[in-house]
Predict the 3D structure of the following.
Amino acid sequence: MTKITIYDTTLRDGTQAENFNLTVEDKIRVTLKLDELGVDYIEGGWPGANVTSTKYFEEIKNYDLKHAKVAAFGSTRNFKNRAEDDTNLNGLLAAGAPVITIFGKSWGIHILQALHINLADNLLIIEDSLRYLRPHVEKLFYDAEHFFDGYKDNAEYALKTLDCAVAGGADALILCDTNGGTLPHELPDIMHGVKDYFARKNIDIEIGIHAHNDSETAVANSLMGVAHGATQIQGTINGYGERCGNGNLTSIIPALALKMGCQFKVCENLTSLSETSRYINELANLAPNRYQPYVGASAFAHKGGIHVSAVQKNPLTYEHIEPEKVGNERRILISDQSGRSNVLHKAKQYGIDLKSKDPVVTTILKDLKSLENQGFQFEGADASFELLMRKALGTTKRYFDLKGFRVINQKTDSDSDLQAEATIRLEVGGEMVHTASLGDGPVNALDKALRKALIRFYPNLTDVWLNDYRVRVLASEHGTGARVRVLIESSDNKNQWGTVGVSTDILEASWQALVDSVNYKLMKDEEE
């Protein structure tokens, strides 16, 4: 069984992604989460490059990590400086991290046109920089930047740069596909070229891989690297990184653990992988990619009736792994492609005893297809679908009856804010209720008025809040007369649920979704 190490660079390479920003406090939280997951090395940033990275290394010293070691990242010395006088190298040492990773150039085009030095000088600064750092750290890694491009351009010289890193005391050589242009079929020859080169010299040195995703092959290249001798994998959670991103550890890790028989610490905590993915998305305030392999919300979602029927008999028919192994879950979607199997699965999930030949199943499917023809969508609105199902069974309860509502928007002058006021009349248990509320927009005002009217009868509604409100225009060629679909995500102290409404009027669509949200909450509380 191959033993490998996982090196996470989300806090440095990941934060170079567009719209991906973390505070010092966020970076500490990510570090603790990755340590809990079992990541071996966590690259905290480039000390001195920005205030956040510098403060991070000061702050992380106050925490005792259970497993992971923090790494500081930087470059080889400036050719004009002696190693001991180089600000970058001394900044790395000042960070006090037990691991230092420095990068150097492997490709002639960068050496000649970016550094403006000759090839021999580049070899000198690689060895000098590593030799200076070596006595002061537990682990010293060398990132061979643009190695694959350099190797394809001049293999002899690219290998010499690695020679100098070994001479300087590197514990591992990380081969970087910095431009992300290498394809998986190119990896074996290059990996074996490196391994054979050091074997001929009787040098035993750890080889790693750091892949970028510009050709959509970072995960494939990382796995191919391991298959051909790499034992350290560098990447980021969710694949975040500059341009198109880095090797996605949330895909690489389960493939190594579950499909390639590799052994590493994260294997013990693999069921926390999906939670870690979501956690980092939340800290970065970025919407998760629902279609992401292994950890995405749709990774194990089944929509077609034939698929659902097969999965119920044996999940292996349409799932390459058990979702629970990576902390994810199987989801059965309800749509116009749904068959009896989907409905029966949902009924079981909702605790409803429904048989396959029950005529109610046909009624539910008929209602579902009719509503979806109008623009309803239940894939993100399970609560609305459960209410639809219970209505077909005749088991729904009327908690209130609408007698009318009115919403007024008012703007007194061009510089004033728009004011929204909603009034609503309801009948609750034979009693008429008439309330009004102001809000930040008409939907918010209507939501407040509805709650205000019901809270006296149903105090548990004080625990409900709206997490998300989304509007989509359907058949936009109809212009302002087009239908709109409103999806609302609500939650309380224990659960969250989605509801949907569709109408040519955005307030009516919002009202439908709001009413479903309230009815669902009240129904579920009664069941407890």
Notes: The chain has a mean pLDDT of 89. The chain has three domains: 5-283, 301-374, 401-527. The two ends are 49 Å apart (CA to CA).
